[in-house]
């Protein structure tokens, strides 16, 4: 009956309503689905509820209604620890490396719940290959790295639990354009290495250029969704959500 078979998606947020305390709802019937090996980005105006979507997906905020599924399994009421165990790894907004610890110590923290030493070593090899800067600066204090390099340490840490989906909240925040470019390249590398990504970004145009699928949030709901390149070419969307600049439609 339903073409949206649950097993077609690694992560599904279905008709989710959520808010903070007694305040008005922030998410008002939001549906977002993340297929395997895909970067899905959420864009939209300030306060639309983008970060709140990630908080709900990582168990930091329990929805008032609606359903969250990971690979078809209902995880709606999971705690953050249970969400992590279910395969959702959250890279928070801003910088969360421990600056006074080495890159190695920061990355190993991501594996605190993994008991098998061999598995930890395999994951270390994997993230070192994926993020060369992590390998190059393995023994350095994380605080000595640039902002973009620290973000890659955070990515590496998030991958230590072999997540199904990485939730990335504004990875370009505070970075210059060159570092932003590198960080988005690494998002694509994560996807190519088999990890799906749900990405929240202020930098809507750059995020849509990186993502496979895009969802535009407004007032706590998905206003429009589809292939990211199509959204980028949509003139109305460009006017409303991409900084008011005209769509990059061919002019010749
Ligand atoms: N911890 C909190 N307690 C109460 N209200 C909150 C909390 N976090 C966010 N909000 C409110 O929820 C709404 C949505 O915030 P959210 O951070 O999800 O939006 P956003 O789309 O990510 O915005 P931005 O792009 O500005 O980060 C805002 O009105 C915000 O003030």
UniProtKB/TrEMBL annotation:
Entry similarity comment: Belongs to the ABC transporter superfamily.
Gene Ontology MF: a single term: ATP binding
UniProt keyword annotation of ATP-binding present: yes
InterPro entries listed in its UniProt record: AAA+_ATPase, ABC_transporter-like_ATP-bd, BCAA_Transport_ATP-bd_LivF, P-loop_NTPase
Keyword Endoplasmic reticulum applies: no
Protein's organism: Nocardioides exalbidus
GO biological process, one term: L-amino acid transport
Keywords: Amino-acid transport, ATP-binding, Nucleotide-binding, Transport
Domain ABC transporter: 11-244
Protein name per its UniProtKB record: Amino acid/amide ABC transporter ATP-binding protein 2, HAAT family
């Amino acid at each position: 009956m339903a073409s949206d078979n649950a097993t077609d998606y690694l992560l599904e947020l279905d008709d989710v309503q959520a808010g903070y305390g007694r305040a008005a709802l922030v998410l008002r019937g939001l549906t977002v689905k993340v297929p395997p090996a895909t970067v899905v980005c959420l864009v939209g105006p300030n306060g639309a509820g983008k970060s709140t979507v990630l908080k709900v997906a990582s168990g930091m905020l329990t929805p008032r209604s609606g359903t969250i599924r990971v690979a078809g399994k209902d995880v709606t009421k999971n705690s953050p620890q249970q969400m992590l165990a279910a395969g959702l790894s959250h890279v928070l907004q801003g910088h969360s490396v421990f600056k006074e610890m080495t890159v190695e110590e920061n990355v190993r923290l991501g594996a605190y719940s993994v008991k098998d030493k061999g598995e930890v070593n395999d994951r270390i090899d994997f993230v070192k290959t994926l993020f060369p800067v992590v390998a190059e600066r393995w023994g350095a204090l994380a605080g000595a790295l640039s902002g973009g390099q620290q973000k890659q340490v955070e990515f590496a840490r998030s991958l230590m639990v072999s997540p199904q989906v990485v939730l990335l909240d504004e990875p370009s925040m505070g970075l210059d354009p060159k570092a932003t470019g590198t960080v988005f390249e690494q998002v694509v590398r994560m996807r190519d290495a088999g990890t799906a990504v749900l990405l929240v970004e202020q930098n809507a145009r750059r995020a849509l250029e990186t993502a496979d699928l895009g969802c535009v949030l407004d007032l706590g709901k998905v206003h429009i969704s589809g292939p990211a390149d199509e959204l980028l070419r949509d003139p109305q969307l460009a006017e409303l959500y991409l900084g008011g600049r005209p769509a990059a439609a061919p002019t010749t």
